[in-house]
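Q: Structure tokens for this one, please.
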Amino acid sequence: MNPTAPIQTVGVLVNAAKPAALALLPVLAKETREAGLTLVTCHREEAHTAGITCLERDDFARAIDALITLGGDGTLLQAVSLVRKEGLPILGVNLGRLGFLTGATTAELGEGIRALVEGRYQTSVRTMLDARLYTREGLERGRARALNDMVVGWGQSTRIVTLDVAVNDEPVTSYRCDGIIVSTPTGSTGHSLSAGGPIIHPASASLVLNVVCPHTLSARPLVVPDSVRIAITVAQTGKRLLLSVDGQDADSLTDGDRLVIEKAPLAFHLVHLPGYRYFGVLREKLQWSGSSA
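A: Here is the predicted structure, written as tokens:
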């Protein structure tokens, strides 16, 4: 997908726990200023560090034409809640270790800004998930959005739980297990992969249901169209279960609670610089051996 709308206002998110990210912020401010762009943030510490404008979070999300994150994949995942309009280009600058999602290195920051201004970048359109959490009585008590995955499980003990799964209101089965991962194609190289799930190409219109430590040998990862509605009901548990959203604890579930997950109406548009190759990233990050020809 190629960009069409001109970019004038760029937002920035910084992992303030990384000194290198804070040190890079004034460099970003200088580069964007020289490119004729307005740089804004929604965090006062970042604004103070680089002398840029700080906006309230909602105003920030509405004002920006593009977003740059300085950190790693975790920092980029924080941008999920800021996607309020379709087609927002998001460039992650990697200061972390793995960096499946980030599209540029620190040395490529200037090139990344020029690519945004001149429209010389690729975008990879990534599916996001929306979820609603309901009580046993059917009352909605929470919402969440994810780019990678949503995980139900673990909690305060190691006792197994029973989770009922349905797809488009059709029962699939009841799993006695430690938990369930619902992953997008983007998240298929994350937690789901560690639990034995398949790698799904980002352009695939699919989701993965992966059971964690099922108490049956017949349970396998299930790939379904991303047009379906997935419902996970806590049928039996002796503990409160955690709901993890993109690796962050978001809520808890108990007996009778139901989590309904669907494809989000908006997509996440990851920016890649010219020369990006998806399988090249897999070879590098997963340390695959053999021929790369």
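A few notes: The helical segments are 19-34, 44-50, 57-63, 73-77, 109-118, 191-194, 278-285. The longest helix spans residues 19-34.
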